[in-house]
Amino acid sequence: MNAHLRTALPLAARGVPVLPLRAGKVPFGNCRACRDNACGGRPNMKTPGPCECPRPCHAWAAATTDPRVLTGLAWATSWKQAAAVAYHPGGIGLTVVDLDHADAVAWARRTLPATRTVTTTRGEHWIYQGAMPSANDVLDGVDIKSTMVYARWLGPGTGTMATLPDTVRALVVKKPSPVRPVTAPVPTGGGECRHRTPTYLERGIAMAEQRITAATSGVHATVYRTFLAVLSTHGRCGCLTDSHAARLFAVAQIKGESPRHCADAWSNARTALGM
C-alpha cells in the first residue's frame, strides 16, 4: 500500500476528511466532465465529500473519510502519484494559522494564545478548535486555512489545542476590506434616487445572486460581469452598502471564488466604470 494512503486511512477513520496532493502541494486536476466546475460540484460546494467522477476533482470538496473511496480503483493512480496528504480543516471544525517564516512565527508567539503546533518546511501551523472563513496573506507570511480550503497533513503536532480566539477571526475582518461602500452624490434635481427604493435595490441584488449561483462554468468571469452590472446600475448614487456587497461575495465564495478573487473582481469593476 502507498505510504501516503497508509497515512490517510487512519486519519479518515478518526473522521478527518483527506485527499492526495501531487507535487507542488496542489490537488490532482479536474477530469473532463468536471473541468471549470461544469458538473456543478457537490451541492453549492458547502460540504466536503467524494466527487461522483473517477478522481478527486474538486480539491477540498473531494476530501473524504470513506475508506472505500480512498482505496478504490478510481483513486489508485492519484495515490501512486501523490506527494503528500491533505485534509479539510473546516470539515472537522478546525482552523489552521499557517505561518510561513520565522517573523510570522515570532508574531504568533507574541500575539496568539498557545495551541497545538505543527512544524512545516518554512514555519509552523498553529491549529485551533473552531472554524472560520479562510483567507490568504492576512499578514505578511500568515494564511488562514479553515473552510473551503485544504491544508497539508504534517503530523499531529504538539501541545493542547485551544479554542479559536477572536484575535484570529479579526485578521480576516481587519484585512483591507474588499467590500467597500460605494459612495457618490445623489442625483441633483430635487428627486429621490430611485436606487434607494428598497424593492428596486433588493431585486437587483437578488438577481445578481441568482446569476452567480446559476453559473456552471466560467465562474470567475461571471462574477466579474455580475459585479460590473450591479455597480453600473446601483453604484453611482450611494445606495450600495457593505452588506449588499457582502451578500454577493458570499454567493461567489460558495461557487468556489476566493475572498481575494472577489476583492479583485469588485475593484476591477469599479475601475472599469471609473469609480
Short description:
The protein is of the alpha+beta class and 275 residues long.
Question: What labels describe this entry?
Answer:
275 residues; alpha+beta; six-stranded mixed beta sheet; four-stranded antiparallel beta sheet; 9 helices; 10 strands; 15% strand; globular
How would you explain this protein's 3D organization?
With 275 residues, the chain is an alpha+beta fold. The chain is 36% helix and 15% strand. It has 9 helices and 10 strands. Strands 4, 5, 6, 7, 8 and 10 form a 6-stranded mixed β-sheet that branches. It has a 4-stranded antiparallel β-sheet with strand order 2-1-3-9. β1 and β2 (26-27) form a beta hairpin. α6 packs parallel to α8 (242-254) and α7 crosses α9. The radius of gyration is 21 Å and the shape is globular.
